[in-house]
Amino acid sequence: MGVFALGIELDGEGFHPEAWRRAAHAPDRLLTGDTLRTRVAAAENAGFTLVTFADSILPPEQVAGRIDAVTRASFVAATTSTIGLVPTVATTYAEPFHTSSQIATLDYTSRGRAGWIAERIDDPRAAAAWGREPVTGAVELTREQRDSLEVARRLWDSWEDDAVIRDYPNGRFLDRNKLHYIDFRGDKFSVKGPAIVPRPPQGQPVVFGADGGVDVRLVAADSIAAAIEQAERARSVGAPLAFAEIDVTLDTPGATAAERFGAAPSNSPARLAFSGSASALVDLLTHLSAHLDGVRLHPAVIDEDLPVLAREVLPALLRAGVAQRPVPGSTLRANLGLTRPANRYAATH
Fold this sequence. Notes:
The chain is of the alpha/beta class. It has 10 helices and 13 strands. The chain has an 8-stranded parallel beta barrel with strand order 1-2-3-4-9-10-11-13, surrounded by 6 helices. The protein has a two-stranded antiparallel sheet with strand order 5-6. It is globular. 44% of the residues are buried.
């Protein structure tokens, strides 16, 4: 195995339904810039490879609201320097031209640290919110996601890397021969392009998701064996990397994990559930590092579990060489061990 990456989800107060009661701030401080900036800074200082931000056009169940994920990622882009910033943007109903522009812009503001969790939405309320006819069934949802990813990737390539020339004396700023129409026509939409944003610093930002066509497959399984099996299967069908999804409830200085939330604290039966000491989590992640390329941790309560992760878990993994801190000045792709992709249109120019 190569790099073992460590990601953490920082949406809301944590995955547990009672997390908001245990937050370190007043309820009206959740949506403030200070809370977001403090948490992301703590994750970066701890050595996490990336932070993710969940999102949906539908309102969250456990808190009063949320600011959209791309806005949150963009807000902390200027105050961070090494950690990857990976918002969730749904592929169902959203216009892929706008999504590709948002993620490309985030890649510029973060200096090459952007990612994208591409997520399907199987809920008629989302269709109503978008003013679209419902997309139902696995086949239709998969097709729309496949087309959205393809459009985004083509748009990111629609500018060659040296299309911006900045020839100030002659008043030439673009080489129009290095901008390309993508000419995509699918079942739900067609896009000609080119993009309105130059090719991102990473060439293509890193795409995460639970389905095919992504750079990083997010594996949701309720056992270690199943997670390893799904990761192997994902790689066999072309996914470069596979991450396990893990709900984490840790012993804190004031209470054990069991005392905090009982023996079965996970809020998602489709994810691995860990409950226990920091040293036991270190052992689990060390074991997984031999079989997977990374993990995304979902804390039960961000303000209680993140400090333990930063103080006891990540330092142990870094000392043992299981994980590495992101390299300053490097891109998210590089920190994940992914190469910068060639531009599909440049070879034909």
